[in-house]
Write a structure and sequence with these properties.
By secondary structure, the protein is mainly α. The protein has one domain: MFS general substrate transporter like domains (Growth Hormone, Chain: A). The protein is 82% helix and 0% strand. It has 19 helices and no strands. α4 crosses α16. The radius of gyration is 21 Å and the shape is globular.
């Protein structure tokens, strides 16, 4: 898709699918402010609190796997509709949970939806976006995530003094964005690449003509057909040399993005601020500042990702995150881990992630896989990133309070450096390249 295109329609399609990211961010972060109240309500230990936070993430592992298996059979849109419906149901179930066991189970099932949307939404955005703005449309997904985070932080702060059941209201508010997403995605079309895959050529042509123009739709349709190599039904297709190389790179990025600490900072921000001497109200307000920072610096990515490319941003972001974690480490060692110092360094860390690493990851991963195996191939890195996410979030309270702040922060900083080095040597640049051209790159390696 090159040249002219229907900008308003592309933006509608991309932003509709990207709205799934808002639910992703909302469900991930709503427990951030609810955590202290859950601890008080159920009498949670550090490990139990870790389960409260990570149960959703373990559900995400299974959800991403299921979505990866089913999306190449049933399509991106149909799977997103089911995911949206699951968001509605689990928001209600979590809010009404009568016991901690039921709460963890509801969060786990909610994780199926979050894991599914984390694979399906970026894939949908990638498959309907022209190459010249695919980076910005992919960034819309990251923007949607941080909007969900900011919304959660705001709700947590506003409901902090609303009574003993305030945490229930926090989770129940998720019904509203879930219902909106369900309605919008039901109105959206299937992606042209999946339509070609299932043989609906006329429908695919009409959609391509509406996205760009009738003059170029035919050429684009032919390129998609040639890239599909016929119907592929075996997982052994992922072992093709070009696909295998892309899988290895994406898998490493998926693990590194979480062992470098992003979700520990997002999920446990109030706990970190409390350990730095803040009171509960101040800690919750600081998480609001965290959300504002994430939102503002994700906007920066809109203007940089298609101008400077994926690879340079990933390297700069990783090194910036490392420097901020090093600053936190120094503050622990020197006894200055308190107040505004901690807040400033955490906001700096998040600024580098949201302006560089986060948007690039969710744009790059669906870009680098061939059309015929994209759904199944994407399930591998998405599943791995959720496994890494769940494990890190589960053990972080123990590591931070028992093993020690210095060791924990030092490890996260080392992982940021590893991420930068890996990107320098192994990650290709995909800026302004059609998906079919990127596939050719891996085959040529």
């Amino acid at each position: 898709m090159t040249g002219r295109f229907n900008r308003s329609y592309v933006i509608f399609l991309a932003c509709t699918a990207a709205l799934g990211g808002l639910l992703f961010g909302f469900d991930i972060a709503i427990i951030t402010g609810a955590g202290p109240f859950l601890t008080r309500r159920f009498g949670l230990s550090d490990l139990s609190l870790g389960w409260a936070f990570s149960s959703l993430l373990f559900g995400c592992v299974l959800g991403s796997y299921i979505a990866g298996r089913l999306t190449d059979r049933y399509g991106r849109k149909r799977m997103l509709v089911w995911v949206a419906l699951l968001f509605v149901v689990t928001s209600i179930a979590t809010a009404l949970a009568p016991s901690f066991t039921v709460f963890v189970l509801a969060r786990f099932i909610g994780g199926l939806a979050v894991g599914g949307v984390s694979l399906l939404s970026p894939m949908y955005v990638s498959e309907v976006s022209p190459p010249s703005i695919r980076g910005r449309m992919g960034t819309a997904y990251q923007m949607s995530i941080v909007t969900g985070l900011l919304t959660s932080y705001s709700i947590n702060y506003l409901l902090r003094n609303s009574g003993p059941h305030n945490w229930r209201w926090m989770f129940l508010t998720g019904v509203i964005p879930s219902a909106i997403f369900l309605v919008l995605i039901a109105l959206a079309p299937e992606t042209p690449r999946f339509l070609v895959r299932i043989g609906k050529m006329d429908e695919a042509f009409r959609l391509l003509a509406r996205i760009e123009s009738a003059e170029t739709a035919g050429t684009e349709l032919t390129a998609i057909q040639q890239s599909l190599h016929g119907e592929q039904q075996s997982w052994s297709d992922l072992l093709r040399p070009g696909v295998r190389r892309a899988l290895i790179v994406s898998a490493c990025l998926a693990v590194l993005i979480h062992v470098s600490g992003i979700n520990t900072i997002i999920d446990y921000a109030p706990a970190i601020f409390l350990s730095a001497g803040w009171k509960v109200d101040g800690a919750l307000f600081s998480t609001f500042l965290v959300g504002v920072t994430e939102f503002v610096f994700t906007i920066v990515a809109f203007w940089t990702i298609d101008r400077y490319g994926r690879k340079p941003l990933y390297i700069v972001g990783s090194l910036g995150m490392m420097l901020c974690l090093t600053g936190l480490l120094v503050s622990v060692v020197t006894g200055h881990f308190y107040g505004l110092t901690v807040l400033a360094l955490i906001l700096g860390y998040l600024a580098f992630f949201c302006s560089c690493v986060g948007p690039v990851f969710w744009t790059l991963v669906p870009e680098i896989f061939p059309n015929d195996v994209r759904g199944r191939a994407m399930s591998i890195p998405v599943l791995l990133q959720w496994v890494a996410n769940a494990v890190v979030v589960l053990v972080f309270p123990y590591a931070f309070h028992v093993i020690g702040k210095a060791v924990t922060l030092g490890f996260l900083g080392a992982m940021c450096l590893t991420q930068a080095i890996f990107t320098w040597y192994c990650v290709p640049e995909t800026r302004n390249k059609p998906l079919e051209e990127i596939e050719s790159y891996w085959n040529a390696q």
